[in-house]
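[Automated response] Your request has been received and processed.

Submitted sequence:
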Amino acid sequence: MANPRVGRAAKKMLMSASTPSFRAVWAVAALLALQGCHGKEANREAAEAPPSTPAVVDASNDNSVHVAQPQRFPLTAAVSRSVFDTLNVTGVVQPDVSREVPVLSIANGRVTALHVGLGNTVRKGQLVMDVQSPDVAQAFLSYQTALANEQLAKTTLTRDQLLYDKGAIAKSLLDIAENGEADARAAQVAAEQELRILGVNKDHPSDTVHVYAPISGIIVSQNTTAAGAAGISFAGSAGSLTIADLSHVWVVCDVYENDLASVHLGEAADIRLSAYADKVRTGTISDIGAILDPALRTAKVRIQVQNPDNLLHIGMFATATFHGARAHNAVAVPGTAVLHLHDRDYVYLPTGTGDYRRVVIRSGQALPGGAVEVLSGLSEGQQVVSNALELQNTAGQ
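Generated structure:
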């Protein structure tokens, strides 16, 4: 049986729900409930989503540093200097072709002994190889024949001279004998000269030719080996060996067409080797190529360089510096004040006690006294840290 009190309460609530105020309360409650549902859904999605990555701060853009002991980093002022324009080009060390001499065997034949090799140093008159040649045997045969004919012609002339003096023969026969003896003597001299050209001593018959170095130098080319062929043929030969005097060498550089106006015959150029960066040689421009490379638009510039200590080896890379005739004013700082970092150049400027700011500059050529030309980024009179690398290392600790 139903409780009469509960029934009267329910009836009262239904009657009050029909009023406008009651309907508004119910709308607000429904809206709050809906927002709660959406809030719970958003919280659940946020909990399930991966955590967001925090923002990365690029510290490399912060060029300001602070040090506790600024007295360790003295300052120096950028100064103005008179600087000549320069042009740097790359080149290769090559032998001076006027000082290259091929080692030739006039006699064709087979190399029986090779006493030197590629890269060896030889002196003038040194035995370099032996060649066994049939040309020598033929030359000796010609010499022996000419020698015998000359002796026979001399005997005949002596006899005809005696007969002519006694009136036994006519003058014409004596003239024939004299001409025959002269021809035989000329043939003998020619045979001796042929042996001498072949490099053979007529007093010591042999089928082997000894070949000697014509100059002192270094063997830069070898075109034969032991048991190989040697000699000169009509097809042409570069010689069995090539000796180069490297006391003078060439540095051949490629200069772009736009820079040729800065290069003149007879002017001096500084030569720096990649292998010996601290050594500087001075050369003279001896030739500027008349033909440009059609692809690169460069001309070959030849520099004559003395090499008494053979420090410049064939094939070495070198940098040639050509100096201009006109000077200009430029800002310069000590080389220690320039910091090379990530293919860029920097200097440190003081901004306060112990505070410094790193600024980018564009450096130019190296100047005498260890200074560096500054093309941009720095003005005359500005103070910079003289030991930039030490400051950089200190700030990085």
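Summary generated for your ticket: The chain is about 30% helix and 35% strand. The radius of gyration is 49 Å.
If you did not submit this request, please reply to this message.
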